[in-house]
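hey so i finally got around to running both of the ones u sent me last week. sorry it took forever, my laptop kept dying halfway thru and i had to restart like 3 times lol. anyway pasting them below in the order u listed, first the sequence line then the structure token line for each. didnt double check formatting much so if smth looks off just lmk and ill redo it

first one:
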Amino acid sequence: MIIYSRNKKIELGKRTLIMGILNVTTDSFSDGGDYADIEKAVERAKEMIEQGADIIDIGGMSTRPGHEDISIELEMERVIPVIKRISKELDTIISIDTYRYEVAEEAVKNGAHIINDVWGLQWDNGEMAKVAAKYDVPVIAMHNQNGTHYEKDIIISMREFFEKTFEIAEKNNLSKNKIIIDPGIGFGKDFDLNLEVLHRMNEIRDIAPILLGTSRKRFIGTLLNGLPPKERAEGTVATTVVGIERGADIVRVHDVLENKRAALVADAIIRR
């Protein structure tokens, strides 16, 4: 499957694409403050591309549990200058990690090719879908909810959530072929549900292409006897390999080199 976005071609299914995480925040759970400076952010993007990143995902507001909301203006001040620089200096696909349509629109106008929405187009009564349709860019729609209690089986709940996402897209003239889904590991799910969703991810692969984002997340730290985020690379690699086997087309990671190498080997075995 090929998704076009402006002057970029995103080819899914042939090999696993690597999305490198670039948080230009002060409070992200793993790398908050590391790349808040624009020069450091651009250098980090260059480094990730050299290590094999196909997409650079830029976020200006943490969405970790207990995060502090910031103004739309501050979010834009963080991400737009970085997007402009990377768009001008580097030949790469840029994703904007935001659930605010105002930020997404400004990001796309300044060089972003993908909108990565942690609320799956369901935060703002269709405004994000309108932006994506207006600029004809793809959306990564993540499964999410407040709280971790589900009345139904988790996969049934996820399928219903994504049905609503596609309804919103259709209502706002956004092609279903422009949507990539994300099972939302670590969002609206407790430890056991995170593992269950990973285990059963093949049950949603018929809906749309899948992006998997597990990088350095808390459940990995729990499994590794409390290791801090920056020591969870090997655990993340394990989820990458399992995720590819269960249908992931893109993996969103901090540790690009390690996951790129793992994906190359996994692809050679799984995508024969």
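and the second one:
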Amino acid sequence: METHVLETDKAAITYDVSGEGGRPLMMIGQPMDASGFVALREQFPDRTVITYDPRGLGRSTRSDGRTENTPEIQAADVHAVIEAVGGPVDLFASSGGAVTALELVAAYPDDVVTLVAHEPPLIDVLPDAPPARRARDGFMNAYQAKGWGAGMAAFMHMTSWQGEYTDEYFALPLPDPAQFGMPAEDDGKREDPLLSAASLAITDYYPRVQALAAASTRVVIAVGEETGDAFTGRTAVHTARLLGQEATVFPSHHGGFLGGEFGYAGKPEEFGVRLREVLG
């Protein structure tokens, strides 16, 4: 595997290239960096695979004086990497990375041949968008008030809730971090990219439907078979409907491509087989 650093607009983007063969396959996440795609990359020994760290995360740095993770800026960075590796590419994009990928295809329609956007967390595609935003704000408020453990426990509670966010949901007390194995102590830090305001632009993004339709890219919205009616399962289903399709089912859950190194193991071998089928 070769590692490169690419200077883009007020950022130094680190990306990795491994393997050789076929059309390049890029894998992106947000706030997940390249370390999250180790197990999935191993399923494609016959392909050139590119992974990267988003600006300000992992090994990539930023000097733009900003902290927010906006899909438009992230898409420009991914575009620069694709140009550097001599695209176009096939693209697998997870979670916030799937939001970046939707903007990438809209803004740079010649970059991607097939996009598999796995469970993009887009609030405004939901029929219950206002209460979903209130639920999102709830875990952010818990983080600001009590720190990482409280915020992450509230995040897991919000993202595992099945169905629309009703009065029943909001009547529940905030979960105890201990029940999720999280520390109750407040370390005083408030810079977590998942729990802070840095990611508001991702969940508040709305797909540019006409631009996506005009692009030559084949866009596939994917959903995990185990996600059910949890937040990102519903956002995937409704994003697919917005684009005139049905969500394509993949094995496992929201992190179904992960190995066991993060304590949230999916089924990377089965996931890789399915991704290969969908890429065709």
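quick thing i noticed on the 2nd:
The chain is about 35% helix and 15% strand.
anyway thats it, ttyl
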